[in-house]
Design a protein that fits this description.
The chain has 8 helices and 8 strands. It is α/β, with parallel strands linked by helices. An 8-stranded mixed sheet has the order 1-4-3-2-5-6-8-7, sandwiched between helices. Strand 2, helix 4 and strand 3 form a beta-alpha-beta unit. 35% of the residues are buried.
Length: 223
């Protein structure tokens, strides 16, 4: 079902312009677009040198906002390609007056356009679409073509923290991390039974738990 466009979307996005970078990607060749650098001035944005973490696919922003609140000495950039969804995250962060969260409206394919190599401390992948059909494998956010991008963004020792409700996607992701040289530091196949201190529950996660689904978690480290 097609999502209805939010009322006054463009105007509302402009009102949040101080906390979001909206990608101009008229060039549909993602690889070429990513090569035209437009680095985010992170020190100017956050006015400090604190570590930077990146959430890819932040949705309505519950995870990044709540995580930022309990980690005031860490900066967060939250990426979401669908502006119709991102607007809710933007308006919520502004209402909360969060100073350590910034947003990026772009696809994951062009993240290297905006970040220096090795500038990210940790990447969060929360309930990315598992895209179970074989023909969509290369679009999965843990496919090796994406992991190569994340690897360039992460510092040595930096982590990818992934959560999913899909067992097949969990197994696919584990193999992808290993094939790209990441160290698997942690795995869990039932997060409700083995909660992690400081791990914020997402909107999807709450719903999946209510349906009795297992939540899988992986921490993969760049070496």
């Amino acid at each position: 079902m097609r999502m209805h466009k939010k009322n006054h979307l463009e105007e509302r996005l402009m009102q949040c312009g101080d906390i979001v970078k909206i990608a101009d990607l008229r060039d549909k060749n993602m690889k070429r677009a990513a090569g035209v650098k437009e680095l985010l001035p992170l020190k100017e944005i956050f006015k400090n040198d604190n570590p930077v973490r990146l959430e890819i696919g932040c949705g309505k922003g519950k995870f990044v906002s709540e995580t930022a609140k309990i980690n005031p000495d860490i900066n967060f950039v939250a990426c979401e390609k669908i502006s119709n969804v991102l607007i809710e995250a933007l308006e919520s962060a502004k209402a909360d007056g969060l100073k350590n969260v910034y947003f990026l409206n772009c696809a994951a394919e062009v993240l290297e356009k905006y970040f220096e190599s090795g500038s990210i401390d940790k990447i969060y992948l929360n309930f990315s679409n598992p895209l179970p059909k074989e023909g969509y494998k290369k679009q999965r956010l843990t496919h090796p073509r994406f992991l190569k991008i994340y690897k360039s963004l992460l510092r040595v020792g930096g982590e990818i923290v992934q959560k999913t409700d899909d067992g097949d996607f969990y197994e696919f992701s584990l193999e992808s991390y290993k094939s790209e040289g990441f160290e698997i530091a942690y795995t869990c196949q039932d997060l409700a039974a083995h909660p992690v201190d400081g791990d914020v529950e997402t909107e999807h996660e709450r719903r999946f738990k209510q349906c009795g689904k297992n939540i899988y978690r992986i921490v993969a480290v760049k070496r």
